[in-house]
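During the reporting period the student researcher (J.K.) took over the structure-prediction task from the postdoctoral fellow and processed the backlog of single-chain submissions. One of the processed entries is reproduced below for the supervisory committee.
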Amino acid sequence: MPSGPDTTDATTSGPPAREDRTGASAAADTAPGPGEEPAADDPAPTGPTGPGADSARPPHAGRLTALVRREWRRTALAALAGIALGLAFPPYGVWPLSPAAVAALSLLTRGRTARQGAWTGFAFGLPFFFVLLKWLHVIGWDVTVGLSVIQAVFLAGLGSALAVTARLPLWPLWAACLWVAEEWARDRVPFGGFPWGRLAFANADSPFTPLAALGGAPLVTFAVALAGTLVAAAALAARRLRHEPRTAAGLARAGGVPVAGSLALAAAVTVGGYAVPVHTEADDTADIAVVQGNVQQAGMDFLGRPMMILDNHVEATLQLAERVRSGETARPDLVIWPENASDLDPYRNAEARARIEEAVRAVGVPILVGALVDHPTKEGYVENQGIVWDPESGPGASYTKQHPVPFGEYVPFRDQLSRIVTRLQRVPRDFYPGDHAGVLQVGPARLGDVICFEVAYDEIVRDTVNDGARALVVQTNNATYGRTGQPEQQLVMSKLRAVEHGRAVVTAATSGISAVVAPDGTVVQETDEFTQDVLTARLPLRDGTTLADRVGAGPEWTFAVGGVLAWVAAGVLGRRARGTRGAQGREDVQAEGQQQ
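J.K. obtained the following structure tokens:
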């Protein structure tokens, strides 16, 4: 719904009718009315005139030259802001850059048409995702670029919506809602979505973090975005004040939200999380051991020879059992192995089963085993499971990963794409998704099992807690992306989930980073990458639920729908304004004809 910048001040701050092209809040030099696209969006050809000019420079080349000349500064600023947002995430973790980047995008899209806003959003999103997802270079830089482009398309939609809604009253509020709407869409499509890069995940160690206990990750994203847009509103108000006399009348003409008011609101939103109680008291405890067996090497070939990873985890567990027998370590109530600790199906491979049973009998307590299991009825499919293995009764309850990773654990349109992208043949079998939450009784503890990337999906973790999990376990295998920053990005998700659900979170990784996270989001213990290690800890078990558990997806839907409705309303108002101006123009022409 193309529309143009507002040319009048509303009850909130807005840009002046004419602004500097090169500034962060620049608008088009010729500002149209609401809903109208400026002529600059489709400039006339530039270049030589006269006979032969058309053949010397085609019209399309002239338009492209004019577009580049007009937009390069804004595009460069958007790219820099996108890079800044990427640096807000681990392994850099400069969280204040997240609201700052939001403010920059708000200013850069203000006073733009829908199409111009979309381009600015894309220019912001592409470098952001490239910085965030550079760990995919292990598979190939083309994969990094390709996924970054796909994800940046969502930011293009956000940029377009920000431009359209910037003329509405209370625009900082609608802009924050639109950030949640963008993440809502990106979390779900295509192929079940890819939630990496949510503003909330850059703020697992910030003043915004406790808000997760009230409304989950969407509320954290909303608060970060609102703080950023309020800073943008303060910048716009300050810019107008420079051109007004320092009198009461001048301040009134500046209109909108005063600088001090906007900054005060931004500060209140930022520190508001400190007022949220984070419940951490335990109803019970369980002594656990987390085994990180390590892998042969990082990268795509981390598996090494068959049985190697399983042997590593068995040997580390046998060493733990020896320390228990010697009295060096207290016997745990349960042991947790990571995802893919057994690369062979222990139900069908006798050697794999024997090794697991050796470890279980030696330590004398149940082990939660991560294993790849052949699907019992669908030939050619495999399941990614967490299996409770008891020292007396053997394998029992299990959880199957519900959200396999597209192109990593299954290949959409395999027959067609595998012929074009030969690397996809390295995924020989598709993973079959599970159909229920992973609540498992492991010894004395009722644990919620979440496997690898599933920790990024709100509903999977929330359903596990609401089904009775007293603590959470994230079984993961990040060996492919070791020492790339990806394990750190996943760990902060565990920290945010701990606060969101008031649950301790145990991350068990084959090669690191394994960690124990307290219910307040504090990392109690963690391992180094690519080392064999065993963590022992007393795990708090909790039965109470947070407000975020009880309200579920309500806040996300509320914010997302509010943002979309604001976008629609701005489009409708723009069309009405164009119709009014068109009718007025016709009346003026008729009146002029009658006078003549």
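The committee noted the following: The CA atoms of residues 203 and 445 lie 30 Å apart.
J.K. will present the remaining backlog at the next meeting.
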